[in-house]
Specification:
mainly alpha, 3 helices, 62% helix
């Protein structure tokens, strides 16, 4: 019976060895830093999306608050049970 695949460890160690090589003084490292840039158009789209989501979310919250305070909001027990079943399935029975 094979428990661990030890052949995979060598692949990781070769990368580690390259990083552990001491650099001599005066020797430049040619490593580039990672960069990310987001265009102005993408930023505008993101901000517009956030504004519409916030407005829709605020409307839903206000609607729920008014229904709860009026006593007209009722929870569908079947939908609630369907959402809870996966949570309880993760625990083994005692």
């Amino acid at each position: 019976m094979k428990i661990n695949e030890t052949g995979r460890v060598g692949g990781i160690n070769s990368y580690k060895r390259n990083m552990d090589i001491p650099r001599q003084e005066g020797q430049k490292t040619n490593r580039k830093k990672d960069e990310i840039s987001i265009s102005a158009e993408a930023m505008e789209m993101l901000q517009a999306k956030d504004k519409t989501i916030d407005a829709e979310r605020a409307q839903k919250i206000q609607d729920l608050k008014s229904r709860v305070s009026a006593g007209t909001y009722h929870v569908d027990a079947d939908k609630l049970a369907d959402k809870l079943i996966p949570y309880f399935k993760q625990f083994p029975e005692s």
